[in-house]
Structure formats: structure tokens, C-alpha cells
């Protein structure tokens, strides 16, 4: 084994790889789910992920999450904040909160309100800095969310990193899974969310459109094929905020003609025929 | 997403030929437009469906005496209130 690999192994063995438990502080929780150690061997992938919105899955969505806490739970449900309520958002935006204690979940909810509503900019920034440690990271996708077929295949096992290849690693356990390459895996969060109590959260309807309109009309590509595989997009997962992939998804054909209408009056008239073709695997636009 | 069509005559007059918006309207159980994810229970789908071409036609009379016009077709995409992406722009010259 090359010396570099040995350094990786020693470094990684000293740190937790995947987490389970009930954490009472944000530091404990984020340490358990830290992916800093991943970059020592997967530097390129880590850099791609850092540039993605998955790495900002809480701080990029603060407004909507804050509104749920303050307006949804606080006013419309008229209930105190709880971990169960917070997970209606965080089940996707930061699934690691399932391992937070009740008091930590409430603290995170308070941080979200502070990050949006505090009058002091320094308080806002301090709260955002803490919340930035919560996101959808390597552990979340390669372990926590490997549960689409949990009753058939079992729960994800602690310490195992699931991937499409399952290549052996001396740094951590690996296992090959087809799940992570299928659209339904992404659909866990990019579709209507049904929390355990049976309510529905219409945050995102993308996967419904993929399944019913795209696959229902003969489409065969996966989410991963367009948002990761094509053009070596890797773990940057480009989407609605990146003009390149939006352009790819929308075809525009314009036919135009100038004529003169109304015999005798001869009014110059423009006729424009436009075709907009949705070449994506889901409706455009989608929230 | 917004489709906008304008015509600019040879005399410099800009005429709006039309505008179309494509979006999802989130509705609660009373059919009221809602923005909160927890409030939305149904959507009214006014978007572009996948694997389909949506066609739009605009016919606009221009001022008498117009000899030529540039028709501009723009497609913009707004993933958030404060973000606008310029997706496509095609200009066609018409003569009369």
C-alpha cells in the first residue's frame, strides 16, 4: 500500500464514519456527521459537493424553514416546537437531526429563527455559521438515506458507505448498492414528503412529475444521468440555479413572418410561432 | 419561467406582442393559493410538461407605415424571487 493510503487509513480510523445516537449539542452532532475526513481521499468529489446546493441545504432554505417554524407550527398548528415538527423540514434538509436530542432540535429551530429574524447582523451571521454545518453530505446520501428498500434489504449499517461500485477501501467499509443510482433514491426528498403522522408537505413535487409525466411518456433517463453523469457534473448536482443545465432542458424554436392584413388598409402584422420543448425529465419549472 | 415577445419597428417603437408565464400554483384544501410547503396540498400545473413541445402563437398589428421590425423572443427562468436566469434570446427581422 502506498504511504498516502496509510496516512488516510490512520487518519480515518481515528474518526467516526457514520453516526447513530442521540446528540445533545450541535458540536457533537456535526462532529459525528462531519465529512472533513472524506476529502483526504475523495478531494475532487468533496470539492464538487462543497460547490453544490446539497452542501447548503439548510442555510439556502432558511426563509421557508423559518416560516414553517414561526407561522406553521407557532401560529397555524398552535403547538410548541418539537423535534418531530422540525423533522418535517429537516428530514430532507438535514436528516442527521433524527439523531439530535429533543433539546438540541429546539436549539436548532431557535438558531434558524435567529438567522432570519435577528436585528443584529453579527447574531444572524453567527447563527448561520452554526447552521452551515448541517447539510446533505456524504454520510447522508451514502448511508443514512439508503433506505428506499429497507424492509427488503435492511437498514443501512453503521460505518458502511454504500455506492454504485462498492469498490474496496482500506479506510472504511463499503457496499455496492443499486439504490443510489436509481431515481427513487433522489425522490425521497425531491418529491412530496409524507411524514410519519400522515400529513403531507408539498415542498417539492419534482419526482411526481418525473415518474408520471416523464417515465409515463417513455422517458428512461435517471436523475443521476442528467444531474451527475452528463458532462462530468459529478457531485455538483446542478439544477434550477445553473443556467447551463436550464438551457439544456428547454428547447426554443421561433418561426416569424411579416404580412400585411386588411385589403386596402395593408396593416403590417407580425406573426410569431414559438415552440418550447421540455427536454428535461420533469416539469419545468418545478419548486 | 417567462416567455416574452416584443417587436421593435424600424422607427424605434417597441411593442409588446405577448407574455406567458409557466408555473405551479400551490393550493390548500380550500383552493386558496399558498406559499408554505406545509400548507400546500394540491398544485395547479401550468408548467411545461416533459417530453412535450408547448406551442404559442402571437399575432400583432404594427403601426401603419412600418417597413421592418425586429421580433425578440426571450425566455427567462426565476428559481427564486431575486434570481433571474436569461435562458434563451432569439431575434428575427421581419420586412413588410
Shape of chain B: elongated
Strand order of the largest sheet of chain A: 1-2
> How far apart are the first and last residues' alpha carbons of chain A, in Å?
48 Å
Main beta sheet strand tally, sense and closure of chain A: 2 strands, parallel
Q: Structural class of the helix and strand makeup of chain B?
A: mainly beta
When the domains of chain B are counted, the total is: 1
Number of strands of chain A: 4
Strand order of the largest sheet of chain B: 2-1-6-7
Distance between the termini of chain B: 32 Å
Described by its quaternary structure, the protein is heterodimer
The stretches of 5 or more residues of chain A where confidence is low (pLDDT under 50) are 6-17
**Any idea what the radius of gyration of chain B is?**
18 Å
Kindly estimate the percentage of residues of chain B that lie in beta strands according to DSSP: over 45%
Given the C-alpha coordinates, what overall shape of chain A results?
globular
Query: Average pLDDT value of chain A?
Result: 92
Any overview of this molecule?
The complex is a heterodimer of chains A (287) and B (96). Chain A has 287 residues and is α+β, with helices and mostly antiparallel strands. Chain A has a domain at 193-221 and 239-287. Helix content of chain A is 41%, strand content 11%. Chain A has 13 helices and 4 strands. In chain A, a hairpin with a 5-residue loop joins β3 and β4. Residues 6-17 of chain A have low confidence and may be disordered. Chain B has one domain (2-95). Chain B is mainly β and 96 residues long. Chain B has strands at residues 2-9, 14-21, 23-27, 42-46, 53-61, 68-80, 83-95. Chain B is elongated, with a radius of gyration of 18 Å. β4 of chain A pairs antiparallel with β5 (53-61) of chain B.
Amino acid at each position: 500500500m502506498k504511504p498516502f493510503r496509510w496516512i488516510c487509513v490512520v487518519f480515518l480510523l481515528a474518526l467516526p464514519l457514520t453516526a447513530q445516537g442521540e446528540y445533545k449539542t450541535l458540536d457533537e452532532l456535526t462532529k459525528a456527521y462531519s465529512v472533513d475526513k472524506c476529502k483526504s481521499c475523495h478531494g475532487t468529489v468533496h470539492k464538487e459537493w462543497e460547490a453544490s446546493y446539497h452542501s447548503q441545504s439548510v442555510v439556502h432554505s432558511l426563509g421557508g424553514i423559518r416560516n414553517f417554524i414561526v407561522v406553521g407550527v407557532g401560529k397555524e398548528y398552535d403547538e410548541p416546537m418539537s423535534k418531530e415538527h422540525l423533522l418535517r423540514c429537516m428530514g430532507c434538509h438535514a436528516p442527521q437531526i433524527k439523531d439530535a436530542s429533543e433539546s438540541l432540535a429546539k436549539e436548532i429551530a431557535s438558531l434558524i429563527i435567529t438567522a432570519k429574524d435577528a436585528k443584529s447582523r453579527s447574531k444572524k451571521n453567527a447563527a448561520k455559521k452554526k447552521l452551515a454545518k448541517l447539510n446533505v453530505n456524504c454520510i447522508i446520501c451514502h448511508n443514512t438515506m439508503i433506505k428506499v428498500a429497507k424492509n427488503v434489504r435492511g437498514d443501512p449499517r453503521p460505518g458502511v458507505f454504500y455506492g454504485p461500485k462498492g469498490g474496496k477501501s482500506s479506510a472504511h467499509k463499503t457496499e455496492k448498492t443499486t439504490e443510489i443510482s436509481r431515481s427513487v433514491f433522489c425522490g425521497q426528498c425531491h418529491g412530496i414528503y409524507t411524514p410519519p403522522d400522515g400529513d403531507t408537505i408539498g415542498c417539492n413535487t419534482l419526482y411526481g412529475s418525473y415518474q408520471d409525466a416523464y417515465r409515463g411518456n417513455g422517458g428512461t433517463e435517471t436523475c443521476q444521468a442528467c444531474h451527475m453523469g452528463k458532462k462530468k457534473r459529478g457531485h455538483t448536482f446542478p439544477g434550477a440555479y445553473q443556467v447551463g443545465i436550464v438551457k439544456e432542458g428547454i428547447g426554443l424554436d421561433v418561426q416569424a413572418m411579416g404580412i400585411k392584413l386588411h385589403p386596402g388598409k395593408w396593416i403590417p402584422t407580425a406573426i410569431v410561432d414559438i415552440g418550447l420543448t421540455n427536454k428535461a425529465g420533469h416539469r419545468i419549472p418545478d419548486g | 419561467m417567462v416567455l416574452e415577445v416584443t417587436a421593435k419597428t424600424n422607427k424605434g417603437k417597441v411593442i409588446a406582442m405577448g407574455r406567458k408565464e409557466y408555473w405551479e400554483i400551490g393550493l390548500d384544501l380550500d383552493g386558496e393559493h399558498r406559499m408554505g410547503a406545509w400548507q400546500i396540498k394540491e398544485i395547479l400545473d401550468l408548467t411545461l410538461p416533459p417530453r412535450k413541445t408547448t406551442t404559442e402563437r402571437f399575432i400583432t398589428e404594427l403601426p401603419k407605415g412600418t417597413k421592418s421590425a425586429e421580433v425578440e423572443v426571450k425566455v427567462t427562468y426565476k428559481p427564486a424571487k431575486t434570481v433571474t436566469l436569461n435562458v434563451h434570446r432569439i431575434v428575427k427581422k421581419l420586412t413588410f
